[in-house]
Amino acid sequence: MHLAYPAVLAVLLFSVGVYGVLARRNVILVLMSVELMLNAVNLNLVAFDVWLRDALHAGQALTLFTITIAAAEIGLGLAIVLLVYRTRRTAAVDEVTALGDRHEAADDHAKEQAAA
Amino acid sequence: MNLALPILVPVLPALGAAAGLATGRRYPGLARPLAVLPVAVSAVLALVTALQLGTGTTLDAATRLAPTGGPEISLALHLDGFSSLISVLVGLVATCVQVYSTAYLKDDPRYPSYAALVSLFTAAMFLVVYSGDLIVLLVGWEVMGICSYFLIGHHWEGADARAASLKAFLVTKLGDVPFLFGLFLLGADAGSFRITEVLHTAATGGLQHPTLIALLLLAGVAGKSAQFPLHTWLPDAMAGPTPVSALIHAATMVAAGIYLVARLLPVFLLSSAALLVLAVMAAVTMVGSALCALAQDDLKRVLAYSTVGQLGYMAGALASGDRQAAVFHLVAHGAFKALLFLTAGVVIHAAHTNSISAMSRIDGLRRRVPDAYWTMGIGLVALVGLPPFAGFFSKESVLTAAEHAAHGEALTGHLGPASAVPAAAGWTVLVAGLVTALLTAAYATRLWLVAFHAKPVAPADADAPYSPEVDEADPAHDEPAAMRWTLWVLAVPSMGFGLLGLRSEWLPRLLDGAPLRPGLETVVLGTGAALAGIVIAYAAWRAASARAADGQPATDPGRLLLGPLHGPAQHGFGVDRLYSALFVRPTAAAAKLVRFLDRAVVETYVRGAGAAPGWIGRAVRFAQTGNAQGYLSALLAGAVLLAVLVAVGS
Amino acid sequence: MSTLLAAAGSLEPAARSYLSPTGQEIVFLLVGVLVLGAAVVSVTTRQLVHAALWLVVALGGLAVEFLLLTAEFVAWVQVLVYLGSVVVLVLFGLMLTRAPIGRSPEADSGNRPAALAVGAASAATLVTLVVDAFRSSWIDLSGAAGTTRLTGEYLFSHWVLPFEALSVLLLAALVGAIVLSRSKDGGTDARPRAGKLRTGRPSAAPTKPKER
């Protein structure tokens, strides 16, 4: 089998995952997109493992580890999402902007106006 | 002789000042001993030094400071009759002032710093007197300038004290700048700053620019010794405490200028032009200041203008080429002017006002302060110059010197040829001196009569101008002893000092050796002028009192005497106003312009330097939305961009 | 990169043409198209639950791809872990955050154009790169490389230590998830007992979880 097929498929999956991460509004959908990206990498690992005929099978071992870590990640991610949802009543990424500077900037500007 | 004694004379008060400044705040009890003792010991040491030195000898000692590559500067000591005589005067007056101040400024919270500054002032004057090197002398000269600034501004709560101190500082500095250049030029021409070498060079004709040097030095002398046209700071300096006025007017500061010219007189004798300028300066100063003194209402201002006039006498003597007469008058004047100021302090203390017309309304002021009444009388008679008081002999010696100079046989002694002094200078000084003698007698009589002898017509006005002194005494009590007996200490030389000049083996031996006996013509003319002045002033006072007795408003005899001149004279003939228009206002306008440029132009850059990063920062803040997806987009886009760059580049 | 390829030793002359695909390649391509399509639908659909279901399709297709690449065990783990647990977790998450059922007009954020640009750029860059690098590489699929037995052997002979470390990581993630998802007031202990509540206070308000 041509190596290019799994490699290109992995690249396209990864790009779709990137798009999903950047474009989705719901945090859970973002997490799903992350899973897509992880799976793209998994595909790459498996394909290269088979291609290189690695004696240690590092690619497949790493794939298994990645799957495990992805499971842990989704668990933790969902816990965080639930916590955010409990405190803020929203699961939208662009509404969780407490670390942003926009409101403070407006406040400072107002303060300066008042001082001047 | 032992060098330690003359060295200790300036050092002790300086150490006392340092100790006073260091401990004044924590141990106020130490302030008085630290103020009085070093100065008193210095006075004694100065006297001992003078006695040890004897007459007709000089002492020179020098230790070289770091080599400068140019004319060398050395820590030099030069003692001769002039310096020892003036140092004794300085020590006596400074001690009296310090003792007097302990009582006069008893309740002043800033007494320790005041006393320390007076000590420093005294030390600086000692340094000027003893120094054998012009640069070291300049150090003392400038220290006096800064001390006078602080002391005149002692009551800095008042706007006029602040203005007066600033004015004194600026005006004297205005003279000091050309003075500094004069010193440099002198040092460059003579190849040394040692006074002995400078004089030696001057005697052998080695000075290339004597006129320029003399004129430049004269500017500094005019500033320090309050000669026209830089005299305006001295009357305003009355804003300081009265003992400071006594110190400045009698022994330090103003004496320094005269002393310097006396010291460097051979240099001045090389230039007739400078002597003529000095003579005209002296003449204008003495006549103008005497007229002003006649019009003043403030007791201290009268005395201040009289100081300016007497300094004019000394400058006139120097212009006539006779430094003996100048120093003689300097010492005699130092004694009686210190006495006058200290008595003025007592009187002001008792009367609670500076104004003599207000004093005239106080009943029994003369009985309240008998010591001050009598000693002020002594001082005024000495000022007027009636025999046998000190002022008589010293003033007559000045007039004699002027007369000799007018005849072309100036009493220059061995310092230079008699022909060096132009006859015009002698005539100028002589005429002005006689006129001033008349005017001096008039204003002294007026002061005496108006202040103490007026019939009280009404109780003291509530709106009488009050003295700025904070420590007003209880009228029910006598003045403290420290303020009374110092007057008598100073009254003795005021009365008797002049007699020392009679015999050539007494005072003149100490100086240049020429007799100081007054000539007959000048005695007749001078004393006659003084007596005439007294009589005229008395008549005017009688007329004024008679008018007051008729129920008309009391008038000042000075107003009667001066007539239309009274108004201008009261304001110093508008010199201040002229300076204000010529210098102060343009300077203020320039300062305003600079301020405007600073605010409007320079500050714009400064603000821009602050605001531009602010705006950039604000622009960057817009990127900080808090939206993680935006950040991630930028991150990934950057990563892709880097990947492309690496791929294309490799 | 050329040295890496040379070291791999599996470069063969361009005898294998892309124009004469093998059967495995055809199946791989078909399943690949399915996976890609499912993934695209999953990240673009406006129905949140559908997105999760399309994700199942994509991940399942990937399991088939693993099988085609002879990674048997990995494929089954993929099915078990991803399809079995992850997607279920995601669905639970959707439910617990009360995601709207049906078409949601707000599924995409305002960042969409940027996302499209970045995604397209990365796809273009990486595809160019990968095609350029691996155009003539050939995978020899003969011989089983990922049977369960083989996997067990290498995993527990060469990779034991990372494996155990990973188990610790999983435990930590488990504990972390529990800590995070517990409510702040200490769970059930802090709540008043139901019986007491009924007798003491008739209002049902305190039974609400202490949110906000």
From TrEMBL, chain A:
<feature type="transmembrane region" description="Helical">
    <location>
        <begin position="61"/>
        <end position="85"/>
    </location>
</feature>
<keyword id="KW-0874">Quinone</keyword>
<keyword id="KW-1003">Cell membrane</keyword>
<keyword id="KW-0472">Membrane</keyword>
<dbReference type="InterPro" id="IPR001133">
    <property type="entry name" value="NADH_UbQ_OxRdtase_chain4L/K"/>
</dbReference>
<keyword id="KW-0812">Transmembrane</keyword>
<dbReference type="GO" id="GO:0042773">
    <property type="term" value="P:ATP synthesis coupled electron transport"/>
</dbReference>
<keyword id="KW-1278">Translocase</keyword>
<protein>
    <recommendedName>
        <fullName>NADH-quinone oxidoreductase subunit K</fullName>
        <ecNumber>7.1.1.-</ecNumber>
    </recommendedName>
</protein>
<keyword id="KW-0813">Transport</keyword>
<dbReference type="InterPro" id="IPR039428">
    <property type="entry name" value="NUOK/Mnh_C1-like"/>
</dbReference>
<dbReference type="Pfam" id="PF00420">
    <property type="entry name" value="Oxidored_q2"/>
</dbReference>
<keyword id="KW-1133">Transmembrane helix</keyword>
<comment type="similarity">
    <text>Belongs to the complex I subunit 4L family.</text>
</comment>
<comment type="function">
    <text>NDH-1 shuttles electrons from NADH, via FMN and iron-sulfur (Fe-S) centers, to quinones in the respiratory chain. The immediate electron acceptor for the enzyme in this species is believed to be a menaquinone. Couples the redox reaction to proton translocation (for every two electrons transferred, four hydrogen ions are translocated across the cytoplasmic membrane), and thus conserves the redox energy in a proton gradient.</text>
</comment>
TrEMBL record, chain B:
<dbReference type="InterPro" id="IPR003945">
    <property type="entry name" value="NU5C-like"/>
</dbReference>
<keyword id="KW-0472">Membrane</keyword>
<feature type="transmembrane region" description="Helical">
    <location>
        <begin position="424"/>
        <end position="445"/>
    </location>
</feature>
<feature type="transmembrane region" description="Helical">
    <location>
        <begin position="631"/>
        <end position="649"/>
    </location>
</feature>
<dbReference type="GO" id="GO:0012505">
    <property type="term" value="C:endomembrane system"/>
</dbReference>
<feature type="transmembrane region" description="Helical">
    <location>
        <begin position="120"/>
        <end position="152"/>
    </location>
</feature>
<feature type="transmembrane region" description="Helical">
    <location>
        <begin position="268"/>
        <end position="295"/>
    </location>
</feature>
<feature type="domain" description="NADH:quinone oxidoreductase/Mrp antiporter transmembrane">
    <location>
        <begin position="131"/>
        <end position="403"/>
    </location>
</feature>
<dbReference type="GO" id="GO:0008137">
    <property type="term" value="F:NADH dehydrogenase (ubiquinone) activity"/>
</dbReference>
<feature type="domain" description="NADH-Ubiquinone oxidoreductase (complex I) chain 5 N-terminal">
    <location>
        <begin position="68"/>
        <end position="114"/>
    </location>
</feature>
<feature type="transmembrane region" description="Helical">
    <location>
        <begin position="485"/>
        <end position="502"/>
    </location>
</feature>
<keyword id="KW-1133">Transmembrane helix</keyword>
<keyword id="KW-0812">Transmembrane</keyword>
<feature type="transmembrane region" description="Helical">
    <location>
        <begin position="326"/>
        <end position="351"/>
    </location>
</feature>
<dbReference type="Pfam" id="PF00361">
    <property type="entry name" value="Proton_antipo_M"/>
</dbReference>
Automatic annotation (TrEMBL), chain C:
<feature type="transmembrane region" description="Helical">
    <location>
        <begin position="75"/>
        <end position="96"/>
    </location>
</feature>
<feature type="transmembrane region" description="Helical">
    <location>
        <begin position="159"/>
        <end position="181"/>
    </location>
</feature>
<keyword id="KW-0874">Quinone</keyword>
<comment type="function">
    <text>NDH-1 shuttles electrons from NADH, via FMN and iron-sulfur (Fe-S) centers, to quinones in the respiratory chain. Couples the redox reaction to proton translocation (for every two electrons transferred, four hydrogen ions are translocated across the cytoplasmic membrane), and thus conserves the redox energy in a proton gradient.</text>
</comment>
<keyword id="KW-0472">Membrane</keyword>
<comment type="similarity">
    <text>Belongs to the complex I subunit 6 family.</text>
</comment>
<keyword id="KW-0812">Transmembrane</keyword>
<dbReference type="GO" id="GO:0048038">
    <property type="term" value="F:quinone binding"/>
</dbReference>
<protein>
    <recommendedName>
        <fullName>NADH-quinone oxidoreductase subunit J</fullName>
        <ecNumber>7.1.1.-</ecNumber>
    </recommendedName>
</protein>
<dbReference type="GO" id="GO:0005886">
    <property type="term" value="C:plasma membrane"/>
</dbReference>
<dbReference type="GO" id="GO:0008137">
    <property type="term" value="F:NADH dehydrogenase (ubiquinone) activity"/>
</dbReference>
<dbReference type="InterPro" id="IPR001457">
    <property type="entry name" value="NADH_UbQ/plastoQ_OxRdtase_su6"/>
</dbReference>
<dbReference type="InterPro" id="IPR042106">
    <property type="entry name" value="Nuo/plastoQ_OxRdtase_6_NuoJ"/>
</dbReference>
<feature type="transmembrane region" description="Helical">
    <location>
        <begin position="116"/>
        <end position="139"/>
    </location>
</feature>
<feature type="transmembrane region" description="Helical">
    <location>
        <begin position="26"/>
        <end position="44"/>
    </location>
</feature>
